[in-house]
Amino acid sequence: MHLLPKFDYYEPRDIGEACKLLSQLKGSARIIAGGTDLLVNMKKGLLAPRSLVGIGKIPGISEIEPVNGGISIGAHLIIQKLVEFDLIRKKLSVLSRAASVLGSPLVRNRATIGGNIVNARPAADLPPPLIAMGARVRLKSRRQEREVPLDRFFRGPGETVIKPGEILTHIVIDALPPFTGGDYIKLMHRRSLEIAIVAVASRITLDGPDGVIRDGRIILSSVAPKAIRAVRAEKALIGERPSEGLFEHAGQIAATECTPIDDIRGGAGYRCSMVGVLTKRTLSGALREAKGQ
Amino acid sequence: MKKLITLIVNKRAFEVAVEPNRTLAQVLREDLGFLGTKVGCGIGDCGACTVVVDGRPVNSCLVLAVQVNGSEITTIEGVSEGAELHPVQEAFVEYGAIQCGFCTSGMILSAKTLLDRNSNPSEPEIRAALSGNLCRCTGYQKIVEAVHAAAGMMKK
Amino acid sequence: MKEYSVINTRVPRVDGRAKATGKARYADDLSMPDMLYGALLQSPVAHARIRKIDTSKAKKLPGVKDVVTAQEAGAVKFGVSPARYDETIFCIDKARYVGDEIAAVAAVDLETALEAAALIEVEYEELPVVLDPFEAIKEGAPVIHEDFPNNIGAEVHQEFGDVEEALKTCDLVRTDKFVNKKQDGAFLEPQACLAFYDPGRGLTLYSSTQAPHYVQRTLAMVLGLPIGKVRVAQPCVGGGFGPKASASTLELTTSLMAIRTGRPVKMAFTREQVFWHSRARHQFFHELTTGVKKDGTLVALKNTCYLDGGAYSSFGIATVYYAGSLLGAPYRLPNMKYDGYRIYTNKPANGAQRGHGGVAARAAWEQQLDIIAADLGMDPIEFRLKNIMQRGDITCNDFNMSSLGMKECLEAVRSGSGWDKKKGKLPRGKGIGVACGFFVSGAGFPIYRSETFHSTAVIKLSEDGGTVNLYTPAAEIGQGSDTVLTQIAAEALGVRYGDVKVSSGDTDFGVDLGAYSSRQTLMSGHAVKQAAEEARRQVLEVLSEQLNIPVEEMDIKDGLVLFKKEGVDFSALRTRYIKEHRGWTDPPSGKHFTFVEAARLAYLARGTIVGTGAYKPGELGGKYKGAAVGTSPAYGCSAQVVEVTVDMETGQVTVDKMTDAHDCGFAINRTNVEGQMQGSLSMGLGEALFEEVKFDGGGRVANPTLGEYRIPTCLDMPNVETIIIESNEPNGPFGAKEVGEGAIMPTIPAILNAVYDATGVRINELPVTSERVFDRLKEEKERRKEV
Fold this sequence. Notes:
The structure holds three protein chains of three kinds. Chain A is α+β, with helices and mostly antiparallel strands. Chain A folds into three domains: 8-54, Uridine Diphospho-n-acetylenolpyruvylglucosamine Reductase, domain 2, CATH 3.30.43.10; 64-173, Uridine Diphospho-n-acetylenolpyruvylglucosamine Reductase, domain 3, CATH 3.30.465.10; 181-290, CO dehydrogenase flavoprotein, C-terminal domain (Enolase-like, domain 1, 2-Layer Sandwich). Chain A has helices at 15-25, 38-43, 79-84, 86-91, 93-100, 105-108, 113-118, 127-132, 231-237, 244-257, 268-290, and strands at residues 8-10, 29-32, 51-54, 64-67, 70-74, 136-140, 145-149, 154-156, 159-160, 167-173, 180-187, 198-206, 213-221, 228-229. In chain A, α10 runs antiparallel to α11 (268-290). Chain B is an alpha+beta fold. Chain B folds into two domains: 3-78, Beta-grasp domain (Ubiquitin-like (UB roll)); 87-155, Orthogonal Bundle (DNA polymerase, domain 1). Chain B has helices at residues 24-31, 87-94, 104-117, 123-129, 141-155, and strands at 3-9, 12-18, 50-53, 56-59, 72-74. In chain B, β3 and β4 form a beta hairpin. Chain C folds into three domains: 27-127 and 188-239 and 244-277, Aldehyde Oxidoreductase, domain 3; 283-445 and 622-786, Aldehyde Oxidoreductase, domain 4 (2-Layer Sandwich); 453-615, 2-Layer Sandwich (Aldehyde Oxidoreductase, domain 4), CATH 3.30.365. Chain C has 21 helices and 26 strands. In chain C, the strands form six sheets. In chain C, strands 3-5-1-12-9-10-11 form a seven-stranded mixed sheet. A five-stranded mixed sheet of chain C has the order 7-15-14-13-8. In chain C, α15 (481-493) links the parallel β18 and β19 (500-504). Chains in contact: A-B, A-C, B-C. At the B-C interface, α2, α3 and α5 of B face α1 and α19 of C.
């Protein structure tokens, strides 16, 4: 068995104490939430933090709450609850869908939404749908609290704008305009226990049930150092009447906007091609949802 | 430094002093003797170490024991008592869902948790619930059949 | 057919309850007072001369009780085939792959052992690394073993008939290449073992092995112990599939340190170490040329194969033979030529895995046969049926198909799958494919040259008469041999399933070559049957003496003695039995004399009743070099139809349905036979679609995890329509023969043929990832454009 390296363990009772601990421990501490990523990396010898700060006992960061028509999700919420909760399934089905293909049921019962975000893996499942729906993350430190749009949160693999001493406490999604729909498709080798070869999340907002596209977002995952928006493909959608042809065209543009690498899960060329296919398919799915079908 | 924690395993409370770097799987196996919990990979890829923590099956190799201080844990040893088998166990034996047995503890715990929540699961629901538990021997078919059969037995 | 009570049923496994309740104990679950924990130091480089090993820091670490290197372990060579013993416990002069064992530590706990192993300092002089077998055979390539300067560890050249002449007479000849990828056994239980030593009683090793007998011999030979002072026993074993079938450095080192320290030592692999140790399926590069007549008659096959062997031979000598000998059948093929080369590379050694040596060859050929059928305008099933072998046929390489339900299998999957309604009628993106295969039912010869029996068994009736103790050295690894052998004992003796108590997997019980080459149901089964019959005979003899009835006029069934004549008065014997058991609560009553009574009386007359059995195959065919690999007392066979959906935009293949028919001769346990079939198909599906051990440029395994080495999950494996065919094998106990490995043979080619049917493209390289299908579809599109 892989043994974990030695570390000190702290379990703060509230966010204030957690922030204080983090600033005292400086860079030597890591937060442990579900642990499904962190402990793997520690067992593989990739990380050896001197201290772990468990946030599982902190109140108020494990709930889903409706806020002003939108939704606030505590960072310590386990991912399986995104699959189970009616509120998410109805209002943010794209997030529910992405959550349902993350890892395995056993992982989803431990891993948290906050962990999936802050670890900043290029293939993480939840950031694409969250970015598509305009999510912001709330960061707390001893002295201040700030909100950052998720699409400006990631810097690169494992890197985010989070500052030492800051804790991601909530993910906030504002009320979505009417006639909005989303979809997420993850291309995988197997049907479970997988990291994406390529994944795409799309969102469409129409200006009416049979109207033109008012807003469109396409987020590409696993094809760049972080989840990226296919900006040019998005532009091609705006003001247009949705059609298979339009989505195909958007897919072709999106395929030129990614910068994948060859790795153990797939080749760069294949990934680009798949961005095209998945963009087209997710846009179709998003349209169906936007029309309430 | 060791921390004193309480684990309620199979309805019995255990106080144990553990190093923070010990996983729940290690503490269950090595400190408490629940050897039915198997470790197949140590990094959450196989599900052999599945135990139920506060009603949810998890990979016990990826949980620190200190994280589940005070939690209720069910291991395979707690699924049934005495000579009587739980319907899931009975069905696994009867339907040939067991070969080498190394995935069995985890598989049964995932299946039992499913049936506790959903007394009449469809085949896709059963397969989805077991999709974190790898089996190299059976091809899964007899496991799925056993879970169906167990659901039937539990209704009676 | 004869009426049976215990066999051909669906009795649950003998170990099912223990496994379902978590009470079953595997090697890593064992512990003993005062036990030490072992850890290995393995080479971080793929090819290096070892200049110096300094263990002084490790030895000084508090809690360390032993540190061993080649200096302590010695230089006795071992391996699988005596002709290619090329391993030592630890590297002596060179490390030959990443993971090659350098040293080991035993300490009071695992943390200390690991820490000490990391403190051992090794000076490596790195040598050029060769990972590609075709590079390895080039002039000037780095030499891995001095005795094999061209890196070809083994080669085989066989010809039956005259292939070149035969090809000239063919109307259609085609050549295709095919390559699979290096596999991993991916059994759920990583190898583990526990050894302890008593100067009087000798060494005991509990190990997660498939072959206690071979481990016992290797331990005795390498550690210099009398073989009678080495006992190897299995706890529950969490799967094996081949890689656990040979003795390993893990077992040898653990034993060595137990002897040296006088304390029990336990050592276990991590999952990563399982990948490093490997000994699983080779990578095979096949080139096949097949010739047929216009009417579809198969005429000749030329097969050339290069095997990437890895750094040591392991099972590879057998593998390189099997890659040739397991073609031909189950079709009538008069001319066959084979050239095989097994090449050393600086990678973990490859060995045996389910369908040993034949899986890639079968995939290559069955796909080629599909192409040929299409070229001839024949239905693939019709084409196969035209050439099918039947009971009594003998192959050109002298395999005697003493039973063969191949035709029945093909017809069963044809109707079971609805083939005639589907083939050629499915929309693009949907496909259906068929393939056949066969496999040995036990190797005809042991791995070392010997006249040994292949299986022995002992049945001892308990002195009270109530229990039948079966002692079999056969290896239960999850496949169900304990159950099947219990059933055979019960049936042959005439008692109920629950009356037999089986103990297995222990070299103290006798000789059994172990769980490999699909041998135990047939071979161990024979030995057990014989032992049971002998015990039965003794009981009946005593009864015969006491009742004055000839043995032939009595039978034992379901735990009761049956008399052919009516009105036999056994009341005096019953009274005697009841007197023996005064105060017991279960005196026999009823109109039948029970086996319990009879067995007790037999004991009173003769002492403990013991029956023994021993089996080895009779004379087998083949006098040519290499005939020992492939000849078997019987051959199992199977046919499969697979239906797939291929996503034409992403290339992703979904296996929707499988129909499998397997001829196991006679199903001792119907549930177990189905379990072997379904498990084989699952492993075949994994190899077809996902599985590949990858390496980086330095020879390190790039995906040593079950996350990146992908075996099927329950969402990937469909249900299988599972059809048992029973051809009644004359050389098998109760007509039984293999199912454990043969069932994997058709899976990969049936998937490949279905993918072709769905897409119009042929895939000649495994695994069939979505990317590979996508690339082939694109190529095909571009080719069409050019045309």
